[in-house]
Batch of 3 targets.
Target 1
Amino acid sequence: MLFLLDKIIKNKTEYINEKIFNLIKNYYTENLNEGFIKNILDDNKNKIIFYNIDCKMNKYNITSLLIYHKAYYKGINRYYILLLGTHKDVRNIGYGKLLLDEFIIFLKNNNSNKNKIIYLNSINESINFYINYGFCKSNENIINNVFF
């Protein structure tokens, strides 16, 4: 089940950011720069989605999380996945795929009549996961993209 943080908490405070930062740093990523994590949490336009194993929202049943940014450009809704992490205790059993599946369904159900594209930048350890899921390597130079 997906939980959108901005639907649960209307105003994200510094305290909330610090709690989410500690969750991400301690359980969901090991190879990301802490400054990068803080920067994406500080931008209130970025949206945070949690995937839970049931319909209760607490730190014990969050299997994975995703942070994305939406931008509309040249008639296309562009979704930039800035971070996707699965809890270190439940990796490699399908929760990352479930989150992506639910995220894509969520995108299809919102503004369904508009064109959409999803971009992401990945650490080397996760590239095969995204390729196996169906993402394609881009020939575009996304390094200069402000979101990455």
Target 2
Amino acid sequence: MKILYTLGNFTNAGNQILLYTINNQNKPVEDYQKLVDNCFANSISPVQQIMEGSKGANPTMISDVVWMQTSGSKHIAAGIWQESSESIVDKDAFRLVLRSVCKKAMSLDQDKVSMPLLTINHSLDLWNEIYPIIEEEFSIPDIQVIVHIP
């Protein structure tokens, strides 16, 4: 499986599963994180509740995926791939996030996942490190990943 690239807003994708990444403080710093917050405000409110509630008995951890479902039956995966907005991305945690998304796609009988071009501070250096991980993790179940470039 090779990643397909397209221009545009990944939140407008017609696919049922959308994946984006957050830090464990759920502090949106990248444009795609802010876009999700704006586009799916009603659906995303559980993320804030989960992240706030996680200060208690069941804290969220790097590699966790917070799933939300919109009224239009889109499944949105917020994968936690770093501790804070200043920390480095944990690539092993990212791999676990991808595996969780693959399992969900298979359970929903979906063969496509949409996501934004994942960056830190708009740098493509990180993307060059993670796109092989994405291709590897989605190749076995043969799920097509469509990356939307703003």
Target 3
Amino acid sequence: MIKLKYYIERCYPYGTAFIITMMLFCNKICFVDSEHLSTALDACNTVVALIVGFLGAILPVVLGMKNESKMVSYLFECDENKLFLKYIKETLLIGVVDLFVTICLYFVSDIKNRDLAAYGFYIWSFMGISFLLLTYRSLKNMLDIIFMSDNQMINDRYYKSQEQKEEEKQIEEKFG
């Protein structure tokens, strides 16, 4: 059961984004030639910038709690696989890649091959959806850490049996 939860938590942002992007592709929904594409690209840039800025602002709060709260400190000690750090890095990396793809789409009118432009739109869709879901996952974990009471932490997944820790370590070693 723990393995299934682990895989779902690690993969759902990409799996969901892939399914939605494939639905767009199969239904030939592509807004490359839309007059509103530039507005959507502007909105995407703004959202990515705000989220990356928010992550940058809230991360010191969480790390500050690491030194002040025994429970949060213990939580970080239990995070032997550094999942919290991996989630933040993954979110920031996908955000930067999404920003790059968005900037490239500003030049879509210069691309002569419309199929190539359409593929750019689908890549942008995948990256944008992935980024939003990764952001949700990262913020959910941060907010859980900030607002979780000591009793909840004791009863929650952060306090694991030795068997659970070994199982997760094997999973992490296997799939990185």
